[in-house]
Amino acid sequence: MRQTDYQHNTPEQARGYVEAALALVDELSPPDDLRVAVFTKACDLFAAKQVVLEHAAVAPQGLGALLRQ
Fold first, then answer.
1. Is 90 exceeded by the pLDDT of residue 67?
2. 3-class DSSP string for 31-64
């Protein structure tokens, strides 16, 4: 199985997620004891991405000819 590592976010994207999370916390105005939790979860949700690992299967030589018949 081949695995390639890539950065999940550019610095610009990270800045956007933090700004969006700050705006959401400001809009929701949670109680002071929940502000950190709301901000943290908002950042997580805005930045959430799916990571996909691909397994490249190699077909034996000649199998393509058999499948085309």
1. no
2. CHHHHHHHHHHHHHHHHCCCCCCCCCCCCCCCHH
